[in-house]
Automatic annotation (TrEMBL):
The lineage of its organism: Bacteria, Pseudomonadati, Pseudomonadota, Alphaproteobacteria, Rhodobacterales. The keyword Methyltransferase does not apply. GO terms for cellular component: plasma membrane. It comes from the Bacteria. This is Capsular polysaccharide transport system permease protein. Residues 69-98 have a biased composition (Pro residues). Residues 1-120 are annotated as: Disordered.
Length: 493
């Protein structure tokens, strides 16, 4: 070890640290190591770095108060062991111990935290300021005291609330097969999500609230605890305020997949909660019945219209048939046809007998015999009558065109067919109308309750711990944001 390394702290330069070598010593040692300094040159460097040291009590003050004087770099000494000579065109080789990027003769860089690092100025201790006191007071005023006030109100003033629950669903009946065969109402499904959607909206409507208030006086029920102004409603509140309060006190759960509705009604007594729930169920059932009445009225109106049309058709057909009979003086052309056919048959039989008689007379008497002449006149009369009857039936001739019996029969058959068709339509329409009336006496839609209105025994509301936690959290978040904003603005100034 060199003589410079053996010096005591009192022999070192002023401003140097007592725990290690001085900056001059470190520089000298590094320079000596870099340039290959021999032990003989070490006393020179030590003599340059030796300076009188201040007392230990004043060492720290001298270091912080006075800047350390700069020291001249030690002179370079020739290296007794030079490396190999550099060849022409190649860079000169670095001496041993030289760091990368270090020029020859330059002292090595001091490492952080080493002996060359100066002592930093100590951090000034924090003191309590007025802004810290104001932040604490604002927390008390904005968070702690309001939360304490809310808790006091919830546990000492807020009235208990009881809940009554009921559940129901809209069901629809199916019509009987007989009604379908008779042309009555169409078949109905077992459940109707559309009706349930209508009921769900109706429960939240102003009309229902007004109807229930008119029946049981909701203002009186929900304003009973007059010492609780937060959770009650004014006795003279408007219908709009009552509707808003209704949505707070009546909670509806609706599943569109199952079509089930569950309603929770709250009041300040268990009896009032059950009463409101029961009235709500009754009003909902009445509304569903009104929907059924509308549907039944539509079905009955359609059947009645069909019946009226069929009755009109039957009346017109019968009037046309009566007019035809009056004009032709025939009640039933078929009966007249039979009688006319009988007359014609009789005349043809008499004609045949007369012809036989004439033939017999020709064989026995002369041509001038009066009996033969009478037989011939009788035959002529029978033939004329047969011709007239045949013309009446329409078998020959057209001298009475438009009034022949065949046309009369055809017109009569057409009128009879029209009358029979109208009568059949009337029978069907009458059956449909009777079926519609029978279905109208039943409920095609009805409200099925799977849970009757319950009566509570223990108060479930208000949820005091939940309300206190939510209010306190909200106040704390608002206060935190306000404080952060104020400090951010202050730091930007």
């Amino acid at each position: 070890m060199s003589d410079a390394a053996k010096q005591t702290p009192q022999e070192q330069a002023p401003g140097a640290q007592t725990a290690g070598p001085t900056t001059g010593q470190a520089t000298g040692q590094a320079a000596g190591q870099t340039t290959g300094q021999t032990p003989a040159s070490a006393p020179k460097l030590a003599a340059v770095s030796e300076r009188p040291q201040p007392p230990q009590g004043q060492e720290q003050t001298a270091m912080t108060a006075q800047p350390q004087p700069s020291r001249p770099a030690p002179a370079e000494t020739p290296n007794p062991n030079p490396g190999p000579a550099a060849k022409p065109g190649q860079p000169a080789p670095k001496p041993p111990g030289q760091a990368p990027g270090q020029t020859p003769g330059q002292p090595p860089a001091a490492k952080p935290g080493g002996a060359n690092e100066r002592l930093r100025k100590p951090v000034r201790p924090a003191f309590r300021r007025w802004r810290h006191v104001l932040v604490g007071l604002s927390f008390l005023a904005c968070v702690a005291l309001p939360s304490a006030g809310v808790g006091t109100y919830l546990w000492t003033v807020a009235a208990d609330q009881f809940a009554s629950r009921t559940g129901f669903s809209v069901r629809r009946e199916e019509s009987s097969p007989a009604a379908e065969l008779l042309g009555g109402l169409t078949s109905l499904s077992g459940s109707s999500s559309t009706d349930t959607d209508i009921l769900y909206e109706y429960i939240q409507s102003q009309r229902l609230v007004a109807d229930i208030d008119a029946q049981i006086d909701l203002h009186a029920i929900w304003s009973k605890p007059d010492y609780d102004p937060v959770f009650t409603i004014e006795p003279d509140a408007s219908i709009e305020k009552l509707l808003a309060y209704w949505k707070d006190m009546v909670r509806i759960s609706y599943s569109s997949s199952t079509g089930l509705i569950e309603v929770e009604v709250r009041a300040f007594t268990a009896q009032d909660a059950t009463l409101v729930a029961q009235t709500l169920f009754d009003e909902s059932a009445e509304m569903i019945n009104q929907l059924s009445d509308i549907a039944r009225e539509d079905a009955i109106r359609y059947a009645r219209e069909e019946l009226d049309e069929s009755v009109e058709q039957v009346r017109e057909a019968r009037e046309a048939l009566t007019l035809f009979r009056n004009q032709n003086q025939i009640v039933d052309p078929e009966i007249d046809l039979k009688s006319q056919s009988g007359v014609l048959s009789t005349l043809e039989a008499q004609q045949a007998e007369t012809l036989i008689e004439i033939d017999l007379l020709r064989d026995t008497v002369q041509e001038s015999d009066p009996r033969l002449e009478q037989a011939r006149r009788r035959l002529a009369v029978i033939e004329e009558r047969i011709a007239a009857e045949r013309r009446k039936l329409g078998f020959e001739g057209n001298e009475r065109e438009g009034t022949i019996f065949a046309d009369i029969v055809g017109e009569y058959e057409r009128l009879v067919v029209d009358r029979e068709f109208a009568e059949q339509a009337y029978v069907s329409a009458r059956a449909a109308y009777d079926t519609a009336r029978a279905e109208a006496r039943r409920k095609t839609r009805y409200l099925a309750a799977y849970m009757e209105p319950t009566q509570a025994e223990t108060a479930e509301y208000p949820r005091r711990f939940t309300l206190l936690a939510l209010i306190s959290l909200f106040l704390f978040l608002v206060w935190s944001v306000a404080v952060l904003v104020i400090y951010s603005v202050k730091d930007r100034r």
